[in-house]
Amino acid sequence: MSFLRTVTRLALGSAMVFAGTAHLTFAREEFQAQVPDWFPLDEDLTVLGSGVVEIGLGAALVAAPKARRPLVGGLLAAFFVAIFPGNIAQYVEQKDAFGLDTDTKRLVRLFFQPVLVLAALWTGEVLRRRD
Description:
Elements: H1 3-24, H2 28-32, H3 43-63, H4 69-92, H5 103-110, H6 113-123
Helix pairs in contact: 1-3, 1-6, 3-4, 4-5, 4-6
């Protein structure tokens, strides 16, 4: 595995653990703003659940043995896809959170989600060069 892939994997995994911890503690209300109005579960329960998932996926991305990384990378990518409707809803419903207080900022953020999906697949070695 390349040095860059390793550094990116550790950074992404650590960021997920941090974000998950933020869901459970100091940024709980901010994350609730990202739960779409139409989502059928309680906002706080959704935030707590997604925080636990983020901690688990982040820790797994950091610590999983090489043979399990494709599974973890695939699950993390699927998680990023699953939460994308919340990001879209934040834009459509014009909800402010995390400094995303204009339509332009919320729209620009939407373009980063595919980058996260690709990063999860790449660092999890789902995407790799075929020799």
